[in-house]
Amino acid sequence: MKIKKFSKKPLDLKERVGAKPIVCYPNNSLENKNLDILQEARKHMEKIDEIIIPPRDAKTFNVKKGNFFRIESIEGPQVGDLNLFQANNLDEKFYSGKTRALYGTHISVGDKMFSSFPYLRSLATITWDTLDWYDYDEDGGSVHDVIGTRCDPYTSKLISGYDYHYCCHSNLTRALVKEKNMNLGDAEKIVHDVLNVFMLTGFTNGTKQYFMKASPVRPGDYLEFFAETDLLGVLSACPGGDCGSEHSSDTAKCFPLKVSIWKVDERFLKEINFSEVSSYNKNHGLTK
Q1: Residues 6+ apart with CB under 8 A from 252
Q2: N or C: which terminal CB in the chain sees fewer CB atoms within 10 Å?
Q3: DSSP 206-256
């Protein structure tokens, strides 16, 4: 936090501050030409599967390229932590930092969930968001953030001194171990920074610290995605419930979440341009 200042202000301070901000990664070239097609296609969806995520736990799910999936509140206000992998190559996983750099702190309809280097392609596109009415509130808070990393037992131990095993990091790890028969160490290494589905967050005005508020999500609300490649998803129903008071907790009121998988006839997707792995030649300046 930049609240402790020990150095003296320079004599040329006025010349050093107040520069005009420049957007680092202009996203005009990322205009989603698929979105109109997807908006029409989603009118013809047929549900083919659903998975219930128990409170303070996580489960995996698979989505085929060209299918849709939804994360839905079904019993009460509950946030979820989402990991996404390319189903046939777990080294390619959701890159929240680059997604944030391209779209901002919170994402919604039309935004893409980019994958890690050296792939950097859209794993999924958000196609519907029943909470897009929330926008940004007076504190700068909004829903569906890509700024929080996930609640985890290591930070919990650091702050509280206690071991807690049902943080989202542990839930995601446990789901990969149990449902994909992975080694514990291997599973934990690939769990990554999440999309905080339904979570209402921002940065405080003073110290710019990450904050949370009670989520506005209610039963029937959902966030919907279109899979641009075969996906393995892992979703944790956060132990903080609606995250209105605390997380990493056995006392917060928690509810299950539902993941549903939907398909549409291929004729509705024939004009879709699916994302491709980055064409960068990976030279990195080492050869001419």
Answers
A1: 239, 240, 241, 242, 243, 245, 246
A2: C
A3: TT--EEEE-----TT-EEEEEESS-EEEEEEE-TTTT-SS-SS-SSS----
pLDDT score of 145? 98
Residue 27: phi, psi to the nearest 5?
-105, 20
Q: In this predicted model, what pLDDT tens digit does every residue of 261-286 receive, in sequence order?
A: 999 999 999 999 999 999 999 999 99
Is the confidence at residue 163, as pLDDT, over 80?
yes
- Stated pTM of the model: 0.96
Taking a C-beta distance cutoff of 8 angstroms, is the pair 59, 235 a contact? yes
pLDDT for residue 189: 98
Task: Render the burial of 45-76: b for 16+ CB within 10 Å, e for the rest.
Answer: beeeeebebebbbbbbbebeebbbbbbbbbee
248: which 2 tokens? 């990493």
**DSSP 3-state of 104:** coil
* Pick from 144, 239, 154, 121: nearest CA to 194: 144
With beta carbons less than 8 A apart as the criterion, state whether 213 and 245 touch: no
What percent of the chain stands above pLDDT 90? 94
- Token pair, residue 49, equals 């599967």
Q: Which residues pair with 231 in a beta bridge?
A: 63, 86
Q: What angle do CA 78, 81, 82 make, to 5 degrees?
A: 125
User: Any idea what the Cα angle at residue 250 is, between residues 249 and 254, rounded to 5°?
Assistant: 90
